[in-house]
Amino acid sequence: MCVLTINVAVLLAVIIVVRLRRRTEARSRNDEKLTVLVVLVFGILVAPTGFGQGVLDVVGQLASGISDAGR
Q1: Residue 6 has what pLDDT?
Q2: What is the helix (H) or strand (E) element at residue 41, kind and residue range?
Q3: What spatial distance separates the first Cα and last Cα of the chain, rounded to whole Å?
Q4: Are 26 and 7 in contact, with CB atoms under 8 Å apart?
Q5: Contact present, 13 and 39 (Cβ < 8 Å)
Q6: How far apart are CA 38 and CA 44, in angstroms?
Q7: pLDDT by residue (tens digit) across 27-63?
Q8: Section 2-24 average pLDDT
């Protein structure tokens, strides 16, 4: 017997990629709202993981570098 497990965050990442590949002109307002909701849920699921913390560190360093360059 084979048991297939799907990580919800990975599934949402695939859905995000598929939805964002569509042409912008073909999207309705409700479609855009659904995409934003899916991305927010993905962010909530990924944030407490090691990967999410790494992304947070990189973005924080990038923002700090940009703000230091502006001085």
Answers
A1: 60
A2: helix 29-46
A3: 62
A4: no
A5: no
A6: 10
A7: 788 888 888 888 888 888 888 888 778 887 888 888 8
A8: 77
